[in-house]
């Protein structure tokens, strides 16, 4: 029996950035059509302008509901228009409070349909946090908003490509603050969420590498004792819980083995420890995956790129990868078969 392709919501993001353009390119990509049924949550005017600009050649059909989108036949891509923005609110590189509110609405509606199960997952285009906050929606970003919408207290940022997945214990903090933010509980929580969701969406029993914080794993305490006091005890607790975690491992050598396929995910202590090797391998096609939510959410691994907005030169590779990954995650969750 052939399973119906998953329905994936694409949120348009900032209408003054490259979001509409990369969505127009993404839904025209045969590799996307082969694995899912996309439905766009956005603005008719912004999408029409972007579609004309990039010349992707895929038509959009305005629909009023997800049910209508799911039943749509033919080559047109369903678009649920949640806003009707004025030209001033779509001026390239000049986000307004109205465009900030629009970004918020696209996310909220897509998340709501994910929670009801009407769509199988969501892939998000980039937003402008300042504009969203100016509209009265005070969130540092997508992740915190989605955590609130889904009632999630624990979540993990994972960046992923075909060859490497990295998950972060700490994210956007000063490097000098990282040691004080680490704890046995925080590292165990991260390992646990990675184990559960990588196992749910990517492979059945993930092999998880847990990195040291300091060079050479602290060299017996000469370069720091976080390995001995925090990371090693956390790994031990994870293993006692039945998780296949190994560490602490030295970051300067571990990634060589991870990209050879010896590990399914790498738990990193801070942002650049994981993102430097990830972006070296997957600069164009890395995907941001939020673990710990009750829904599937992937995103591009870049910003609004105002310098490229309106030029038609923005690359859609990360958005294409994000949609394809959301679809693969949905299939794995629904069938237990990795694709």
TrEMBL record:
Coiled-coil region(s): none
Positions that bind substrate: 142-143, 279, 288, 297
Catalytic activity, reaction form: 4-(phosphooxy)-L-threonine + NAD(+) = 3-amino-2-oxopropyl phosphate + CO2 + NADH
Location relative to the cell: Cytoplasm
Co-factor binding comment: Binds 1 divalent metal cation per subunit.
Binding site for a divalent metal cation: 172, 216, 271
Cofactor: a divalent metal cation
Keyword Metal-binding: yes
Pfam families: PdxA
UniProt keyword Heme, yes or no: no
First-listed, main subcellular location of the protein, grouped into a coarse class: cytoplasm
Entry superkingdom: Bacteria
InterPro entries for the chain: PdxA, PdxA_fam
Enzyme class: oxidoreductase
EC number assigned by the record: 1.1.1.262
Leftover remarks: The active site is located at the dimer interface.
Annotated family: Belongs to the PdxA family.
Function, in words: Catalyzes the NAD(P)-dependent oxidation of 4-(phosphooxy)-L-threonine (HTP) into 2-amino-3-oxo-4-(phosphooxy)butyric acid which spontaneously decarboxylates to form 3-amino-2-oxopropyl phosphate (AHAP).
Subunit-level organization: Homodimer.
Name of protein: 4-hydroxythreonine-4-phosphate dehydrogenase
Organism name: Geotalea uraniireducens
Taxonomic path: Bacteria, Pseudomonadati, Thermodesulfobacteriota, Desulfuromonadia, Geobacterales
């Amino acid at each position: 029996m052939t399973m119906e392709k998953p329905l994936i919501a694409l949120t348009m993001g900032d209408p003054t950035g490259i979001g509409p353009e990369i969505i127009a390119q993404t839904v025209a990509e045969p590799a996307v059509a082969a694995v899912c049924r996309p439905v766009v949550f956005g603005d008719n005017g912004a999408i029409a302008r972007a579609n004309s600009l990039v010349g992707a050649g895929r038509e959009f059909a305005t629909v009023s509901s997800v049910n209508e989108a799911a039943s749509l036949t033919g080559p047109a891509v369903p678009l649920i228009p949640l806003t009707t923005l004025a030209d001033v609110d779509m001026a390239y590189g000049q986000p307004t409070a109205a465009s900030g509110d629009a970004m918020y609405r696209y996310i909220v509606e897509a998340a709501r349909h994910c929670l009801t199960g009407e769509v199988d997952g969501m892939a998000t285009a980039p937003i402008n946090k300042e504009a969203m906050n100016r509209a009265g929606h005070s969130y540092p970003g997508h992740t915190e908003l989605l955590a609130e919408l889904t009632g999630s207290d624990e979540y993990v940022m994972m960046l992923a490509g075909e060859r490497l997945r990295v998950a972060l214990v700490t994210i956007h903090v000063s490097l000098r603050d990282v040691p004080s933010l680490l704890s046995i509980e925080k590292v165990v929580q991260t390992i646990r969420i990675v184990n559960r969701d990588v196992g749910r969406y990517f492979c059945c029993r993930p092999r998880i590498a847990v990195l040291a914080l300091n060079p050479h794993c602290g060299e017996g305490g000469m370069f720091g004792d976080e390995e001995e006091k925090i990371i090693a005890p956390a790994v031990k607790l994870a293993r006692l819980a039945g998780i296949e975690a190994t560490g602490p491992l030295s970051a300067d050598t571990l990634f060589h083995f991870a990209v050879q396929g010896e590990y399914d995910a790498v738990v990193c202590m801070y942002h650049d420890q994981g993102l430097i090797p990830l972006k070296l391998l997957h600069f164009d096609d890395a995907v941001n995956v939020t673990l710990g939510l009750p829904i599937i959410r992937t995103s591009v691994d870049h910003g609004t790129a105002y310098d490229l907005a309106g030029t038609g030169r923005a690359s859609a590779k990360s958005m294409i990868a994000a949609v394809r990954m959301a679809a693969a995650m949905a299939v794995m969750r629904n069938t237990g078969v990795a694709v």
